Structure formats: C-alpha cells, structure tokens
Amino acid sequence: MAEIILIDRLKDKIEFLRSRNKDLKIIATNGCFDILHVGHVRYLQKAKTYGNLLVLGLNSDASVKRLKGKERPINSQNDRAEVIAALSCIDIVSIFEEDTAEHFLELIKPDVYVKGGEYDLDNLPEAVLVRKYGGENISIPMVQGSSTTNLIEKLKKN
After folding, report:
1. In this predicted model, what pLDDT tens digit does every residue of 28-59 receive, in sequence order?
2. For 18, 33, 85, 113, which has the most beta carbons within 10 A of its beta carbon?
3. How far apart are CA 77 and CA 138, in angstroms?
4. Is the pTM for the entire model greater than 0.85?
C-alpha cells in the first residue's frame, strides 16, 4: 500500500527519496478520484510507466465541492486516499486544499506530470508550471464512457 503523506511533509519526503536514489524519476498526477472506476485504474497504471515513483495529489473534500458542486464528493477525502493508496501503481498520496495542483507540484517538482486527455496541456496552469522548471507533460487518453460524472448520472437514472 502506498504512503499517505500530509502535504506539509511531502517536500521533505521527496527530497529524502531523491537523496537516496539519484536515478529516481518522479511522476505526478492529481485529481478528485471520487468514485474509482476502470478509467482511473488504466490511467494510473499508464502514468506509472513514465517513471519509478508515482505521486498522486488528491483534491480535498472542500476542493472537490468547489470544483464539482455541492453534492460532491461522494466519498470522503480519507476514504478516497485509502482506496487510491491501495493500488499497486501508486507510491505516495497527498491531499491538497487548493482548486489547482500548482502548490502540490511546486513541492515535488516531478520529472513528469501526467493528466487525462480531456485537459489542454498548453494552457493548464499545472502543466505551464512543470514546463517552466523543465519537467515533461504527458497526456493520457480517456477511456470512453468512463467517468465519475457518467457513473453518478447512471445511478440517478436507475
């Protein structure tokens, strides 16, 4: 199981890991991951192939509510963190409060930043930040029809 690390301890953890392994290639991603589905799993497994340490920034409950609406999240941040941390491709999970992951990324300065294909990496603030310090941005195509919003709508209809 991956480590769940408080955001205020994340920078020290990453610096420690880098000091112990000069070949460490850190991949970062972020998101709400409210109801884990096959699209998430495939995306995270693919993300892990771009390096050897996958760090996931998880939007806090308050952040999800601001981004997705008052009925979200369905699952609490602690439950979401525990479920995501149980995936073998994840190494570290850290919850952040902001609506964007820029602060999270500034703390770890990943070698590779990965986002789903629905995001425009030319204009995404996180991708702009990663480019500024020389990191690589990678887009992974979405699994068609696989989204938390679609799952919630399907449940409402049934």
Report:
1. 999 999 999 999 999 999 999 999 999 999 99
2. 113
3. 26
4. yes
Q: What are phi and psi of 48, to 5 degrees?
A: -60, -25
Q: Which residue has the higher pLDDT, 4 or 149?
A: 4
Q: Are 111 and 131 in contact (CB under 8 A)?
A: no
**Number of Cβ within a 10 Å radius of residue 24:** 14
Q: Are strands 112-116 and 26-31 parallel, antiparallel or unpaired?
A: parallel
Please give the CATH topology (third level) of the domain spanning 3-157. Rossmann fold (3.40.50)
**In the 8-state DSSP scheme, what is residue 142?**
P
DSSP state of 141: P
Q: CA nearest 105: which of 78, 124, 86?
A: 124
Instruction: Decide: 20 and 116 in contact? Cβ < 8 Å.
Output: no
157, two tokens: 């209809």
> Tokens in use for 31?
């998101």
